[in-house]
Amino acid sequence: MNTSKNKTALSLFVSALLLMNVSNAFAHDDHENQCNLSLNNDLSVTPEHIRILEDNETLVDIYKDNILFIKGEQMQLNDKQQKMILEYSTSIRSALPEVTEIAIEAVGLAFEGLNAAFGETIDMQENEEKFQQLQQKIKNKYKDTNGSYFIRDGDFNVDIDDEGIDDLVEEILEDMVPNIVGGVLSSIGKAIASGDDVDTEFDDIGDKVEQEIEAKSDAIEMKATAFCNKMKDLDKLEQKLIDSNSDFKDLDLLEIDH
User: Fold this and answer.
1) pLDDT in tens, the chain (258 residues)
2) Which of 90, 170, 238, 251 has the greatest count of CB atoms below 10 A from its CB?
3) CA 67 to the chain's CA centroid
4) CA 221 to CA 219: how far, in whole Å?
5) Strand 36-39 and strand 42-45: pairing?
6) What is the SS3 string spanning the chain?
């Protein structure tokens, strides 16, 4: 067994489990289900207001989920538009906790996968707290203490592009990879000393991970797909509102790459 190759493979394995579960929670390999979300402007959500902003200027304000202001002017809505605004507003409110929940579950799944693969080789308990910190940072990225949300333009996927989250991921990897490599090399030495086949020590890693996380991974994938479909519906609703009145053009918040 080439230990240098295995050190590289292990580093990639750790990185993949940790990063891919979060970053790709909403990007599926199936092109038809692909769901890359972003925002065209900043979004602020409070218990009473949903505001779309550009350079700190409020373009759209939906007050109490049914009163629409465009650049400070209240819009007169017909019954159909009123229903669409209510649906639009409540859909945004429900989407923000959902996207956060999916990302947090993905981080937890990454830890479970690493624990399944290497829990017998190294002490994973000391890293569990950092994974919990990572989950908390994802929560904090979108939610403040009073239950309000603020999301900057272009940023709707819960990914690793946030500087604070990225720093913590790097810290976790820096701590874990040397320990994993050291544990693996120790196992290799023991196998050689006892005359066992070194390769067999690692043959079942993939099976262990699959058995441990497959069901949960499928569940997260289903949630991500359902969320994606909701956002596609919301994007279509935006377009219907804009088509119903040219003054509503600033409601074009969502950007979805199909």
Assistant:
1) 444 444 344 444 444 444 444 444 444 444 445 567 788 999 999 999 999 999 999 999 999 999 999 999 999 999 999 999 999 999 999 888 887 788 888 888 877 877 776 666 666 777 788 788 878 877 777 665 566 788 887 766 544 445 555 566 666 666 666 666 655 555 555 555 665 554 555 555 556 666 667 777 788 888 888 888 888 999 999 999 999 999 999 999 988 875
2) 251
3) 31
4) 5
5) unpaired
6) CCHHHHHHHHHHHHHHHHHHHHHCCCCCCCHHHCCEEEECCEEEECCCEEEEEECCEEEEEEECCCEEEECCEECCCCHHHHHHHHHHHHHHHHHHHHHHHHHHHHHHHHHHHHHHHHCCCCCCHHHHHHHHHHHHHHHHHHECCCCCEEECCCCCCCCCCCHHHHHHHHHHHHHHHHHHHHHHHHHHHHHHHHCCCHHHHCCCHHHHHHHHHHHHHHHHHHHHHHHHHHHHHHHHHHHHHHHHCHHHHHHCCEEEEC
| The Cα angle at residue 11 between residues 6 and 17, in degrees rounded to 5 | 120
Q: Quote the tokens at residue 4.
A: 């240098």
Burial of 110 by CB count in 10 Å (0-12 exposed, 13-18 middle, 19+ buried)? Answer: buried
Please give the C-alpha separations between residue 39 and each of 34, 97, 122, 241, in angstroms, as whole numbers: 16, 16, 41, 17
Q: Are 247 and 70 in contact (CB under 8 A)?
A: yes
Domain ranges of the chain: 3-257
